Amino acid sequence: MPAISPPALSIIVPVYNEQGRLPATLDGLSEVLSDLSWTAEVVVVDNGSTDRSADIVRAHPSGPVPIHLMSCATRGKGAAVRAGVLATTSRYVGFCDADLATDLAALSPALAQLGAGVNVVVGSRAHPESDVQARHNVARRTGASLFRWSTRQLVPGIADTQCGFKFFDRATADAAFRPLRTLGFAFDVEVLARTQRSGAVIAEIPVAWTDVAGSTFDPLHDGWQTFAALAGIRATLANEQTGTRAQRAARSQAFLDMPAGDVARGALRGV
Ligand SMILES: Nc1nc2c(ncn2[C@@H]2O[C@H](COP(=O)(O)OP(=O)(O)OP(=O)(O)O)[C@@H](O)[C@H]2O)c(=O)[nH]1
Ligand SMILES: [Mg+2]
Hints:
By secondary structure, this protein is α/β, with parallel strands linked by helices. The chain has a single domain (9-258), classed as Spore Coat Polysaccharide Biosynthesis Protein SpsA, Chain A. The chain has nine helices and ten strands. The two termini are 18 Å apart. Mean pLDDT is 89; it is low at 257-271.
């Protein structure tokens, strides 16, 4: 089979039971990406949704922008984004949420920043020029403020780690996602901490963000896990700094040798 060159951009969409929000999202992504001057693909990564999410992706009419469906054996948004990033080979890669809460108008400025040499572009609801509509209720907002405060030491200077809209150049993405251990909603913090420690240039950009009904984030179940994950990230990163170079390499190899489920480059299935 002749080698097909990868597109310039891959957008990963992690999905868990998104049958309600997915059709409009796939339409929106197809429309915006087909207007780009860059070649692009969408990769939906599903963790065994029990609804019709996978069928909706398979049935989406094919257009100029390929939409692939991947499954990921490990549950969690972080696990799904990691699987998608490591399965693609495009020059630039990023992710957005299935609710498209972040307006795709931010895509062009994000790509312009990457093209200008920025390594990581972070959509930020805390940017003074962002337009944030219908934010969460008071309890969720309080939790989010506390979470932001808790991330300050891990990712100094990054005002919003949790907006589901981040784009990377390939080398920076691979280096940050391959060793990623945080598989739930807090994975962004580990990814950003790793990119900061590697000396990557990170830009936070303004976004238009609208709360969309149908969140998969359960404040009771996911909230405390997300906080607890911060302690895990601190420990992991500190641990990686200790020991001899050989010990660090052995630890990291042992992690990489773990069965990665269906994470394999080129294993995408077009639909
Ligand atoms: N593959 C996969 N995707 C997930 C999982 N959990 C959440 N997601 C996806 O992660 C994205 C973000 O989830 P949302 O439900 O929008 O949660 P959120 O953006 O953190 O919180 P809200 O602000 O309340 O929307 C969506 O695309 C979800 O489908 C999971 O376990 N596996
Ligand atoms: Mg959301």
